[in-house]
Design brief:
Elements (H helix, E strand, L loop, with lengths): L1 H23 L4 E17 L4 E12 L4 E14 L4 E12 L9 E15 L4 E17 L2 E21 L6 E13 L8 E13 L4 E13 L5 E17 L17
Parallel strand pairs: 1-11
Antiparallel strand pairs: 1-2, 2-3, 3-4, 4-5, 5-6, 6-7, 7-8, 8-9, 9-10, 10-11
């Protein structure tokens, strides 16, 4: 009898604690969006060991109806060898949270990255790890709060391209990139987002390739209980320009699924 009373007491306490805990947790909210993302991603090879990087991105929401962000990135890349590269640089993001440009969030970003690529008989593979130091002003209800914040982020990209025929101009691509936040201002969203991409990449000319496909972005916002699920049509152009005097070394990097 005493054992039953003890078990009943423990069960009651656990029920009360779980009930109180569940009341403290806010309801999970998932916002679904349709987006369109177009970009140009360029590499300018200026020496055997060095290249200049430049990306320009435009993303719109409600497919193409409303603005979402403009993004500009520049940097330098150093070639340890043909398959191993180090890079770093600066980026700026103009983000609207309301779909209009009356008030928008500015983000200044510094980044460093290591990328490893390899070509196989039936697959081209790329792995990239990128560190980002993000400085941005917070916006609430379309109004700037004038309180800059800082967040570190690390990104892990794995992508693979499968040519339809060996040496052919077209390949099927799969890519996944996971973003994690860290730092003292990160409380509820160490997980930042995951991007899964499937598409087709095609060589347009000596200098240009294009990949077109679907990207699913699952993003956790800073509040912790609000998520964005973005269904995105992406159209990314990749430019490769060789300004070296000696072009004997090959210049055909594996690049797909990138941002």
């Amino acid at each position: 009898m005493k054992l039953l009373k003890l078990l009943f007491t423990i069960f009651t306490l656990v029920s009360v604690i779980n009930s109180a805990h569940s009341q403290e947790l806010p309801e999970k909210v998932v916002n679904e969006n349709a987006q369109f993302w177009i970009s140009t991603n360029n590499v300018f090879r200026i020496a055997d060991r060095w290249a200049i990087l430049n990306d320009i991105h435009v993303r719109r929401t409600n497919f193409m109806a409303d603005p979402n962000f403009y993004f500009l990135r520049v940097g330098g890349q150093y070639y340890l060898n043909s398959n191993l590269r180090l890079a770093g640089g600066y980026a700026h993001l103009w983000l609207t949270t309301t779909g209009v440009w009356d008030n928008y969030q500015n983000e200044n970003r510094i980044y460093q990255q290591l990328s490893i690529s390899r070509r196989y008989e039936k697959m081209n593979a790329l792995f990239r790890i990128r560190l980002e130091q993000r400085f941005f002003n917070n916006v609430q209800d379309g109004q700037s709060l004038n309180n800059d914040s800082f967040v570190n982020r690390v990104r892990f990209l794995v992508s693979a391209g499968f040519p339809f025929r060996q040496g052919g101009p077209t390949e099927f691509i799969l890519a996944n990139e996971t973003h994690l936040n860290f730092g003292k201002d990160v409380v509820f969203n160490t997980f930042n987002q995951n991007r899964f991409t499937v598409g087709i990449k095609h060589k347009l000319s000596k200098h240009w390739k294009v990949d077109c496909g679907y990207m699913m972005v699952y993003q956790q916002l800073a509040s912790g209980n609000v998520y964005n699920l973005n269904h995105t049509l992406r159209l990314f152009f990749y430019g490769s320009f060789d300004f070296r005097k000696n072009k004997n070394l090959p210049f055909n990097e594996v690049r797909h699924g990138e941002e």
